[in-house]
Structures are given as C-alpha cells and as structure tokens.
Amino acid sequence: CPFCIYNNNYRFYFFTFFSVYIIIMFGLQIGYVIVDGNSSLFATVLNGVNTVLHQFIADLPRTHGRGGQSAERFKIRRLQARQEYVTKVAECANQQFIINDNPIICGLVIAGSGEFKHELIASGLLDYRLEIINVIDVSYGDTIGLNQAIQHMNV
Do residues 52 and 43 touch, judged by C-beta distance below 8 A? Predict the structure, then answer.
C-alpha cells in the first residue's frame, strides 16, 4: 500500500485526519474489526462495498451474582475467558488481513461497544503491519455495528 506508514517497533501509529482522507479518496481497502461481548466481525470496505470476511460468536460467562467462597474463582474464570477471547480476535484479525505475509488493507478500524476494543489494542497481539487508523464506539455489534462504523468514518 503506497500510503501506509509502517512502524517496526510494535507500537501502533495512528494516522492523521489527512491520511484517513487520502485512504478514502483514493479508494484504498480498509479493514474493520467489530468486537463486543457477544460476537466479532471482520470485514473490508473498498469503494463503498462491504465484504464480510469472517465472524464468530463469543461464549463468555456472565457475572456470578452469588457470594461466598466461589465468587473469586468465578471472577478469575471470567477474566481468563475474556483474555482468551481477545487473543482469538487478534489471531483471527492477523489471519484475515495478512495473506501471504502481506497486508491486504491499508488501514484498520477497530469498533465495538464496551472495553474489548481497548483490550485488543493494549494486548499487543495484533501484527505490527496492521495500522490502526481509528477506534470507534458503536452501539451494536455484527453488521449493524459495521454500518455505524462506516458511517462514522465517512462523516
């Protein structure tokens, strides 16, 4: 991608507004990761055409409302399940957006409701070639969340 700025020290470089404008105006492919507590969706957008590459449902345990000796154990299990889910999302993003050791997108938008998108960025599991251009809060997941993220990028 001629307009991508690669940073080799595993830190994410956030594009400026002008860079995002160039990506949209020149019709370069943008990758979207929509992640929340229920599901994850991976898609690309090129010239206004959405292509869903992959999606899966998360089966995360809910909070345990009972106290007692088991409360701490259930809390630890819930945190471990969240970390495994974030790891699975990052691995899937690397598989979907990097093919034959080359990124197929010029920028990555991470969107979702809740803290999962921030946990995904902070985990450091995303490949350094996937340049994050925006992090967006959306109200929904799946395709509705994808449409909200695309609308937010085009404003």
Answer: yes
